[in-house]
Amino acid sequence: MAGTLPIVPLPRQALDPNGRVRHWYENELGWATVPGEPVRLVVGRRFDVLDVPAEAGRAALRHLGPGSPVAAQGDRMRLLVAAGSAEELSGLLDWLEWGALTLDLVALGADTLMDAPPPPRAGSAGARPLPLGRFGSQGAAVWVRPPEPGCEVEASLPTLSAVGGGGGAPDLVRLVDTVATQCHRVRLRRASAQPLAFS
Question: Could you give the CA distance from residue 183 to residue 43 in angstroms, rounded to a whole number?
Fold first, then answer.
């Protein structure tokens, strides 16, 4: 028994006994949640999500507008994109010639859920994003770039209609190409770090 370390569970999402978290999402942002604890967001109505390794997500941040919300949980980053984008991902990856490769890139769309990160503290505007290195081993979801109440978040989300357009929305094609490239690099790096298996 001596010399063994106790196993400590990862931090969990805090419960919402007063309903403040749920109220913030439903009333301040207009985002649907599902009953129960912890609070979970309904994906596919107001936004879809690209769930990627945190390393790939960091590279994608430059293709997102400053108002585009980004969450992190564990070693994953969740990039919020326009509703309906999840349905387009497979065709978009094929068009970008990434379709033949297995990428660690998951699109969450209609009828899926996402753990709700706690809202930013009152008085701390969304202008102070979480430092990128802080969420690496955490189990609870956190905002890297929180959504801002009172702003129309959907207008800042990457969309296919932004391609070549003059609107302010980020371009989903550039975002997906960047994320796919970074996911592939992460995959290659991990594969090269594995010892070779010889019989």
Answer: 22
